[in-house]
Amino acid sequence: MLRFSTWKFFAIVAMTLAAVLIVAPSMLSASHYEQLKSRLPSWLVPPTIVLGLDLQGGSHVMLEVDQADLIATQVKNLRDDVRRILREEKVAITGGIGTTARGVQVRVADEADREKILPKLRQLRNSFSSALMGGPSPLDVETSPDGVIRVTITDAGLTDKSRKAVEQSIEVIRRRVDALGTREPSIQRQGDDRVLVQVPGLQDPETLKEILGKTAKLEFRLVAEPGQNPSETEELDQVEQEGKIAVEKQVMVKGEDLTDAQPGFDQQRSGEPVVNFRFNIRGAQAFGEVTSKNVGRLFAIVLDNKVISAPRILTPITGGSGQISGRFTVEQANNLSILLRAGALPAKLNIVEERTVGPGLGQDSIDAGKRAAYVGAGLVVVYMLVTYGVFGVFANLALFVHIAFIFAGLVLLGSTLTLPGIAGIVLTIGMAVDSNVLIYERIREENHAGRSILASLDAGFTRAFATIVDSNVTMFVAAAILYFLGTGPVRGFAVSLALGILTTIVTAVTMTRMMIAVWYHYARPTKLPI
Amino acid sequence: MKLLRLAPENTKFPFMRFRRVSYPFSALLSLIAVALFVFKGMNFGIDFAGGTVIELRAKSGAAEVGTLRTLGESLHLGDIEVQAFGNPADATLRFGLQPGGDVAQQAAVERVRDAVGAYYDLRRVEVVGPRVSNELVQSGTLGVVLSIIAVLSYLWFRFEWQFAIGAVIATMHDLLLTVGFFSITQLEFNTTSIAAILTIVGYSLNETVVVLDRIRENMRKYKKMATAQMVDMSINAVLPRTIMTATTVMLALFALVAFGGQVIRSFSLAMIWGIFVATYSSIFICSPMLIYLGLRNEDADKAAMQKHETERKAETADSLRNEAAEGQAAAPTSSPAATEKTPAPARKAAGKRAKTRPA
Question: Which ipTM was obtained for this model?
């Protein structure tokens, strides 16, 4: 009991000092922290504790790929591909290209024609998805005896598209969120079809949702002429006016061929806010070609399947730039240009979960958490003191180090402190003394059974240790599972609970033992003080 | 300095005798808890039920709950719940899932924002769509089940199987009563509540382990003592620690309830209840289970029984002559006469043996 190796003593003292040094900067105000950082070399100043969104305010938005929309887009692309093949092979079909729930179908009456296009259709598999080489086919191509060929997207093909859509979306979303000028946004994929966006300290969460919720799929299409084949056109809503307008399904130029988009004002007419854009070479060529062939016709600017405006093609537009007008406000023009610059999302994303905390509420939560922690710790400290006297002082010192260790652990792991996390720390304050209580009660018991003070101290520590390990392991397992299955704030709780359990072993057992050993050495008590 | 002692010293409560009361009592409470869960149900928060919570603070003056309620109802968002709490300027609005999938939920928030935005700041907005809430239910349930399995496997590995069974039953008991607590108080049940439940499970096992550890130690020390007596002795020995720890944790929790704010209040209240239940079940549910399951002390019990039997036979023989002796035949098996205390030197030796533990 009294023998305590010197290295152990110094190891504990060093650990305590390190913990205090690691935590200290987090306790400083933001301005003092910056000062400290500017004066010392950066590797010397540890980072501060990261506060969760519930404490510093911010937005947590979970987006999910809209499956219905994804299927619709893929079917549309498939339809364009099939149309291209039919045209290239000069194959005549009976009726138009029909769509099914998950694919397209065409009726080719002539068998030779069928044989000609079938290999081409099967080849679509390769371009449809490259990641699935050797895996399950993303497309099914089947023919029925009456000459109908069906091309269907399989589940595997859809999952693959969904996963790809998420990957591309993350890039697009990052560009969009960065345009808002927020600090340290976190954008992560979740599962096969979700993206989690977390933006701390946002003053205006509405704009975030505004720019996250839009697909921003821009298309230039010709407005249908009377008498055009109805299967080649569709009716779309208009933004400016009531009622629908029929446009061709065929897309002239897509938004992905834009190189730039900037908000501006209409120079010639009203001076209303507009968005000026520039095409890349491919876009400029295609746009020039279509406008040269269709002078006098109307073309529609379609954003997310709504017609923003439908101006008339007066002269061929070959310069590769243009402007979108649509009775915008300045803010709308600004947001639209952000969206066009960042590019379109490959699929529509829906907000399936949103948690937004204003900065004021976050500060209130921090204050409440602090108050609860001070009061809780204060009560426990006083209680230990009146129950165990000088041993209570040791337990309290150990408790102080224990809390320092938890915070140091949070800094080192870079994990976030959430409100439930604070609750977890307050709870471990109560739990940490459990180990001390186990030891002290055992010491008393052994002493009452007639052992000498030294023997009681020794027996108390050795016997209680096994129990402490067993009980802490069970608690730790619960915390670990909570961490792996929990989300957001609950995870924060699991982390502080788990850290608290680990540090308990060091502080409540080893440290207290050391303090009692030193105390015994100098005080030479004749009677156990508890 | 005179130190404070809340726990009485050297108690000799015959805890095991209460098992005939505690088992039916707990069974009844568990049944009530299940019935409450089935018939009254839980106040599921938006995490599990889906829906929207909006926390408002009036830009000036106090929040007008009545006005908010009428306003809320005029938006046709189904059942809308308006509550004032804490600061008089604060109020929360809560409404369920809107028909029309994820898009409809966001549209509903927009309508509320438009309606109240001029007079109130939206301090917190939480929207959980139908699919996410289903997943949270699944992962929550999975978490509770998995952690119980994991912890029990550890107990199985560290202790005899009887201990693990006893711990399972005690944990289930605590779980049921906590669910019952949520149902009867109608405290909001959300992901934080799952954290509370898992912490209660952890604490309950912690309590159980402390008692079981002492039982195991004493089991080796007092090989010839009847199980019930040995269990009683062990519980009495750890009783001061049980009371001390429960009190300190309670102090911390009361601080959380009083000062921790709205968000973690239901968590803290559930924890307080959980500490009560866990302490009770470790003593009155888990420990008696060891007697029912016939712990290692079978031999000692048998010896005690036999000894008692012979005594009884002798007594019966006596009673042939003396009819009044019949009542004594019903003496409990763990009567002190049937057991012997290990002499002190042997006890020390046993104590040393107990130190070498199985890996």
Answer: 0.77
